[in-house]
Amino acid sequence: MLPLSRPRLTVGRLHTVGAAGLVLLLVLVACSSAAPTPTPLPPTALPPTQLPAPAGLTAAQRAPLGEAVYSRSCAACHNPLSASNLRRSFDRFNNAGEMLSYAQRAMPQTNPGSLPAEDYLNVIVWVLLDNGKVAADAVLDADNLAEVTLR
Ligand code: HEC
């Protein structure tokens, strides 16, 4: 009994699939002919690759970025998560530019120079701001950091 009724079930299912396929095809045809022309993006919505380079940021803007880099890439060795931690190293350098190039050259100790240049700059600026070495509205970069004396 059961084996005999199986083929009929299969036929019924095939019919259903065929009908569904036809409906899908009709829908696709209808959609493709009625496809609207894509509206251009508003000029302010730049894709990430076209965003302007983050030059000209103030120390206050860089500090939170730097703290995030520190917690991700430095705090494992430089404990705890605090900008006063690296303050102890101020007397090793004549100015903040030297400190930056040391960090770029030698840190993280297990993978020196592995971070983007912006990350190193942001960490150092965070340490400087948090320890009162620069003003919150100071616009710092790799070039003018040498003007910030540490001792
Ligand atoms: C794997 C461990 C490790 C990581 C991660 C690490 N450091 Fe260091 N760092 C050290 C050690 C050890 C020294 C001391 C080296 C020496 O005196 O020669 C040091 C020294 C320094 C110094 C020099 C001043 C001092 O206190 O001796 C600075 C500045 C510094 N690190 C910044 C950073 C920054 C910024 C990061 C994150 C981007 C980082 N380090 C990540 C281990 C690490």
The gross shape turns out to be globular
- Quantity of strands, as a count: 0
- The DSSP helix count reads 5
Largest sheet descriptor: none
* Residues in helix, %: 40-55%
Q: At the first level of CATH, what is the class of the domain at 55-147? A: Mainly Alpha
Element-level helix/strand string: HHHHH
As residue ranges, the low-confidence spans are 24-31
On the 0-100 scale, what is the average pLDDT? Answer: 78
CATH-derived topology of the domain at 55-147: Cytochrome Bc1 Complex, Chain D, domain 2
- Structural class, by secondary structure, is mainly alpha
State which percent range the strand residues make up. under 5%
Say which molecules are bound, naming each kind only once.
Answer: heme C
What's the alpha carbon Rg, rounded to whole Å? 30 Å
Architecture per CATH nomenclature, i.e. the level-2 architecture of the domain at 55-147: Orthogonal Bundle
CATH superfamily of the domain at 55-147: Cytochrome c-like domain
